[in-house]
Amino acid sequence: xxxxxxxxxxxxxxxxxxxRLLRRYRLWMGQVVLKAASAPLLRYADADEIVQYAMTxxxxxxxxxxLHEEPQRQFEAWxxxxxxxxxxxxxxxxxxxxxxxxxxxxxxxxxxxxTVSKLQRKKERYERLNAAIAAxxxxxxxxFELRLKGLTLSEIAAALGxxxxxxxxxxxxxxxxxxxxxxxxxxxxxxx
Length: 192
Fold this sequence. Notes:
Helix content is about 75%, strand content about 0%. It is mostly helical. The protein has two domains: about 5-110, RNA polymerase sigma factor, region 2, helix turn helix motif (Rna Polymerase Sigma Factor, Chain: A), CATH 1.10.1740; about 115-180, Orthogonal Bundle (Arc Repressor Mutant, subunit A), CATH 1.10.10. α2 packs across α4 (about 45-60) and α4 (about 45-60) crosses α5 (about 70-110). The chain is elongated and about 95 Å long.
């Protein structure tokens, strides 16, 4: 069967005709990929993989190809567009993969983040703080938990059924005890 007859049959929904056509054009499609794709893209996706994707798109989209004169020339122009779109699709896919990789790398290794020793000191401070809080009376511990969750002193008083002034004075006394226990004046739990 000649190409033009296969093209006409394929546009009418003959999947076998389209399959035969695509087998004939497979190498040509590969050349279009090699011309349209960058070297980094071809390291990411094999040319055959892109051609395979384009062939799948052909089966999906062949019904939209309207032929007028010179069906073979129109089919080749349409096919080249489908292949270039497949190259663009893989290019976008590669960019997304690179962005995800870069994001993962930034998350794993902060650019100007703390050193291991600073992280260790911070962990030790948190452990000392938690131990000092655990030594406080239970109701005062509850106040600290609520404060660390972002509640204001008024909200803590309402949650515990206490007056704000009582919460304020207990928090002040507890902060003084924590500062003495930790040997630091850097605790900052502002009143509101």
